[in-house]
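Below: protein 1.
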Amino acid sequence: AFEFYRTGVTADSLQDVQSVTKSVLALLFGCAMADGLVRGPNELVALRLPDLLRQGGDNTRLQKLRFAHLLTMTAGWPGEETARRDRDDDLRWLARRPFIADPGARFAYDNGAANLAALALANAVGHPLSAYAHQRLLAPLGIQRFAWRQGALGRELGALGLSLTTRGMARIGELVLSEGQWAGRALLPAAFVRDATRRQSAGGYPVGQPYGYLWWVADGGRGRQVA
């Protein structure tokens, strides 16, 4: 094993992991499945986030929206890669964005879809996302130091915002390579980890690779995160 840090960075330094936040969000969804707090990717988002249908958006499509559509970036909104703290955790803004396709019809890399998934998952588990992540995923991995950025309304984002140490990142990678097993304990279902890291859609821009559940998947077939 080889470990190296640039000047000014140590093993304890928290670093912004950008879109790896999305992939950790997917793992938290798997934890919520194991805890019986969500039934699975095919569950309708509005069942866990009823306020979604009260925002004045396209309810014909919002009623069809499933967690799988958010996890695979096939919700039907145009791609949105920018981050704006004033709106990223605003359910009204997220729900009222105009669709360009029906849910499931096409892939578009969309930060808004991941942010909506974070709001829905936090509502389903009944805790702020960072608290659930610490209790259910990070602390069992031995990760005590982390930070999770909030939007203007005080909710953790799903598209980005997580900061981890390099060793924390390595532990998450080892967890996925072990299909959710850590120290003899299943932190999340192995079948879900396999599904998250295999091709769920053809993917596309900006990486040009197939896409799983908030994970880019290398052509070799085994899941690999690309921030």
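Below: protein 2.
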Amino acid sequence: MPIKPFKDLSLVDDFMFSEVMRKPENIKPFLESLLETKIQRVVAIDKQKDLKDTYDAHGIRLDVYLEDEHNTKYDVEVQARLHRKLEKRIRYYESGIDRHSLEINADYEELSDSFVIFLCVEDYFGAGLAVYERESHIKGAPEIPYEDGSHAYILNASFTKENGNPAVLDFLRYIRAGYKGEEFDTSSSSYLQQIDKAVNEIKQDSGREMEYMTLAMKMMDERKEAFEQGERASQIKTIKRMLSRDMSLEEISDMIGLDLEEVKRLAEKK
């Protein structure tokens, strides 16, 4: 997939979203509108934060991660494409945040509240809602909440039912317009004017453009490497299976189109 031109970026693109929303004055009003609560102070904020326990573990790269004055953790992600099993992804993100939040030997009661929020261009659940909020309760007794301090929201920029705060709905409309490359009138919202100004200022910064291109090239290399590793693993599996059927290395080399020495090397892999 070719790298998207810097001038065509909108808030739905990871780089632009991270650059704009990592500023407290941009992310805090959005969270306050969505969660209908007041955040007095943003204590820490990271863009593209990496959470990884071990070298070979599946890593998490969070778009925008922040903590407030109560040590509550917030992860806000933007999704231009609809991913499968988003619920499992949210679960994994929550577990990563939890593992990096609790000090060694600390009591579980000290575990911070966390919010994982996905901003999606498409409707993941297909019910037309603007805001999908996960609720937990005891089966057979919905009046008993199951409160573990974790919260999940999936927002839908393609909503048809306005079940959210008006400010959140306008923000989702702005996201949708940016994704479609359409103009959006921000004159009725000082917040969206602020966001739109931040987007345009970043586009005019040649230093940010260089940073974007460098990051995009790095991510392309990572995806290519991951693909090649997956392809190589598949080749090893095929060679092992063919050997188990008493095929010679020479026959395997001829059949799968790999050099004989390469087939020998892969056959020795664990």
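Confidence is low (pLDDT under 50) at residues 53-58.
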